[in-house]
Structure to design on (583 residues):
């Protein structure tokens, strides 16, 4: 039912979502930790910037990213200076766009999980000879593991489901930027409804299973951390 | 010897103190909530920064604002027991205890872990997760976890406050046992008078961020210039030694330098140390020795100080042998008997209780 080119788009989507999720966790963890503890005046501004993709139409975000990554944009000039070349309509460009687009879905669960961890755990770890960095890995991460699970699943799933940003930044290049959501659109445009059905069903089942796992795990959450 | 000086401005109150504490025994920091007891412990542990701080323990400088010295909390060789046990929920009891040990300097002297586990009675809890433990068990594990680091000082912040009465009674014997075994100083924060009387060797009375009084337990308790001596719970604590048993009447005798007391029979060996508590309201003063009285403990005493309290009460500080005793009498009795500083009198002690086992 799924053609080889459909399978390629599935594979590309998985690759994109995995890479983007990994990058989002790396950026999102320190960012969420800072947001959960800081009393800086910048907290509100940073929070708003991170959350922007939640309310902005994906095409708007994609449009600005396209400009920024273009030859005259800041990101474009930086990548050219680094010798990477232009990012629009490349897989790397798509990863960058996905990271920005899905970041709130990673930062917010992490921030909530970190905020729920009382200062007493850090004090206790410090009196047991653990430095701040050590405490973060040995105490905070295990206590926030449900936050990490939610963040990864939501970040991954949201990246899989993006469409508008992909079209703006990535276009429709096979094996480069043609992800599942774009492929479904192509099938529908070409009136290949049965092909579209196959891929659409895969996404539907995937999304439902992911959310099911997430909610059943969170339901069983161990003890209050406060 | 430990010397600490701290100044911290909390807005609502200022912590400002300069204390020199002995390097053995339990020093209880006693005072109402908000008096700065916990803040002081947090300053000592390095969990709280101070506008001015100087902290020296056993000749080692941990903190000094003038010299720019500040040892971070995780490098201070201390043990800290919090009000809540704070056992890491993702680790078993054994892993919780190992948490600090794993992070110790390889060359550091190790605590005798087996003895510690034995002393706190947690052997059969080691494989369990903290949420399967009672509050008292959790707190015993937390104490073992802190002592497993072989610290130079143990800080305890109201370790019993979160426990109900039954759990408190279950854990107090372990603490008394520790008090006698530990060779390091213990700073123990509490606002509970019974806990202080049972555990303290020395006390620091704190009030609104300042030190109101510091000294040995019996010294501070008998100071009639302090509000403590005028409260209904005012009492004296005597350190005595068990000297005889009277099997016929189910009594025991304890002696101190100068005299002795009869107590209900104690289940302990002759020669054991006995800490006796005598409420000031249970002591009466007579000019002559009563010849016919049902009260057993009638001892010669000398009046050292007299102070009027509220409600027609007078506090009298007396010397009995080498011990100090407080008596609460009515101001009318004081007038009628013509009590004065330096007078030789007799005291009748209507009741007393033993604080240690």
């Amino acid at each position: 039912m799924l053609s080889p080119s459909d399978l390629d788009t599935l594979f590309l989507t998985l690759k994109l979502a995995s890479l983007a999720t990994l990058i989002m966790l790396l950026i999102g963890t320190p960012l969420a930790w800072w947001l959960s503890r800081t009393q800086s005046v910048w907290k509100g501004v940073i929070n708003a910037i991170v959350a922007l993709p939640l309310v902005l139409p994906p095409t708007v975000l994609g449009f600005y990213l396209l400009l920024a990554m273009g030859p005259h944009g800041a990101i474009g000039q930086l990548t050219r200076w680094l010798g990477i070349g232009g990012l629009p309509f490349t897989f790397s460009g798509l990863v960058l766009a996905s990271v920005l687009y899905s970041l709130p879905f990673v930062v917010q669960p992490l921030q909530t999980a970190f905020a729920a961890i009382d200062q007493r755990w850090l004090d206790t770890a410090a009196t047991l000879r653990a430095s701040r960095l050590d405490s973060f890995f040995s105490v905070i991460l295990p206590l926030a593991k449900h936050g990490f699970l939610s963040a990864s699943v939501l970040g991954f799933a949201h990246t899989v489901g993006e469409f508008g940003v992909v079209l703006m930044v990535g276009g429709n290049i096979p094996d480069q930027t043609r992800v599942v959501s774009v492929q479904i659109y192509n099938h529908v445009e070409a009136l290949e409804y049965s092909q579209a059905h196959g891929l659409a069903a895969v996404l539907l089942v995937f999304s439902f299973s992911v959310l099911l796992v997430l909610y059943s795990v969170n339901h069983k959450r161990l003890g209050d951390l406060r | 010897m430990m010397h600490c000086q701290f100044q911290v401005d909390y807005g609502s109150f200022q912590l400002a103190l300069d204390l020199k504490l002995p390097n053995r025994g339990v020093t209880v920091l006693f005072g109402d909530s908000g008096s700065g007891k916990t803040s002081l412990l947090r300053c000592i542990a390095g969990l709280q920064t101070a506008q001015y701080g100087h902290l020296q323990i056993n000749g080692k400088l941990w903190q000094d604002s003038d010299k720019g010295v500040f040892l971070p909390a995780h490098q201070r060789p201390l043990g800290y027991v919090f009000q809540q046990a704070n056992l890491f929920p993702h680790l078993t009891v054994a892993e919780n205890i190992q948490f600090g040990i794993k992070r110790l300097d390889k060359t550091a002297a190790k605590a005798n872990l087996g003895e510690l586990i034995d002393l706190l009675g947690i052997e059969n809890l080691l494989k369990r997760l903290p949420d399967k433990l009672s509050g008292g068990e959790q707190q015993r594990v937390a104490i073992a976890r802190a002592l497993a680091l072989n610290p130079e000082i143990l800080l305890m912040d109201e370790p019993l406050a979160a426990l109900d009465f039954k759990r408190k009674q279950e854990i107090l014997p372990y603490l008394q046992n520790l008090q006698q075994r530990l060779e390091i100083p213990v700073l123990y924060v509490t606002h509970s008078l019974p806990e202080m009387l049972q555990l303290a060797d020395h006390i620091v009375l704190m009030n609104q961020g300042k030190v109101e009084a510091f000294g040995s337990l019996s010294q501070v308790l008998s100071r009639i210039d302090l509000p403590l001596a005028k409260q209904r719970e005012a009492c004296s604590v005597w350190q005595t030694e068990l000297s005889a048993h009277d099997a016929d009447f189910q009594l025991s005798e304890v002696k101190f330098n100068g005299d002795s007391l009869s107590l209900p029979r104690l289940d302990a060996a002759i020669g054991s140390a006995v800490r006796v508590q005598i409420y000031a309201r249970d002591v009466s003063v007579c000019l002559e020795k009563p010849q016919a009285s049902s009260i057993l403990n009638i001892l010669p005493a000398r009046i050292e100080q007299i102070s009027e309290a509220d409600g027609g009460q007078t506090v009298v500080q007396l010397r009995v042998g080498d011990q100090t005793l407080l008596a609460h009498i009515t101001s009318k009795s004081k007038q009628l008997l013509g009590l004065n500083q330096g007078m030789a009198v007799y005291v009748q002690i209507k009741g007393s209780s033993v604080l240690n086992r």
User: Anything to note?
Assistant: Chain A touches chain B at residues 120-121, 123-131, 134, 138-139, 142-143, 222-223, 225 (CB under 8 Å).
